[in-house]
Amino acid sequence: MVLLVGFTVLVAILVKSALERGGVSPILGWLVLGMGLKVLGVQGDFLSPPVLEIFSFLARVGVFCLLFRIGLESDLPGLLKQLRPASMIWLGDVTVSGFLGFAAGYWVLGLSLIPSLFVASALTATSVGISLGIWHEAGAVESRNGRLLLDAAEMDDISGVVLMALLLSVAPVLQSGTGEGLPAFALARTTAVFLAKGIGFGALCLLFSRYLEKPFTEFLQEMESPPDPTITVVAVGLIIAALAGWMGFSIAIGAFFAGLIFSRDPRAVTMETSFNTLYDFFSPFFFIGVGLSMDPEVLGGTTGAGAVLLAAAIAGKLLGAGGAAWAVGGKRTALLVGASMVPRAEIAMIVMQRGSELGDWAVPPRLFAAMVLVSAVTCLVVPLVLRSLLARWPQEKEEG
Known about the structure:
Elements: H1 2-21, H2 26-44, H3 49-72, H4 76-81, H5 83-108, H6 113-124, H7 128-137, H8 144-176, H9 184-223, H10 228-246, H11 251-263, H12 266-269, H13 272-292, H14 296-300, H15 303-329, H16 331-340, H17 346-358, H18 365-392
């Protein structure tokens, strides 16, 4: 077991280095690594239940690291400065992407209501980190369009996490009413309870962030030597994530809010460098776990469904985010922002993975495999397209 984990970490880091040198997201390599381990494990009979449980645990810690970092990197005060244009792009993005995702699942692929809702929720998300490397490479992150992209993507992340939490709460209620019409009262009650708990949990996080986070961070800086303060912050984040799970949310939701708590104070953000080591160790295990959960035989029969969902994924961002960006900044802004938001990785796959944990009635194996194909293709192709667009339309840095 220890040998296998060590081998997996070693290969994951080598894959990351090799793919990043070629301008390709390592996420694709980690998915392939997980699928390769699944094939070898079936043939060699070394993926015993205890081994799979260890990988499952590491994958859950990986989910925490992914969403904790997304929350930690959020700049809510900065978002308020461009709230109007960013909110226009976000609204068009979420509305169009969600509708096309639902339509692709419900009417084109013939899925039932709940799987179609999971597709819609997953396709509203984006993975701007895939595109951000290309913007950094072109020196365009501090341009007007670069800042607009970051703000819109930040709102995208927040809404994607909230939609996932809401869907995970109401999906069992919707399932219980299958064949008997929607249980309107039960659905309304579940939604109301979710909103009440969400507001209460959010209020507690806000109070901690406003009154306790800064003195707590200053205390850590005085009492502990690096990297101990970072480890303590991560431990507090794990406790907050666990409390979110105890309240009926997921650990992923709690991790995101924990990151938001510590994003308010620049002192906490400076700890991110130390956190990167933990992030680089654990985050690959989520995508490796996704690959391990795949059935190679199922993957081979999902090309058609994957193509349909891929078309919806691309069209949703180009029409939704790109269309709104056209109104804000013109054709070039539309193409750059729309294309940059096409990749689906962290949040999209977390949505599908959490749905698959509910059962095949929520996310069937073939649908899960089709979304893995969508993630792989968008993470591979978009950087190539985006590099060409930024070379054609260089973006100038904005002062201030």
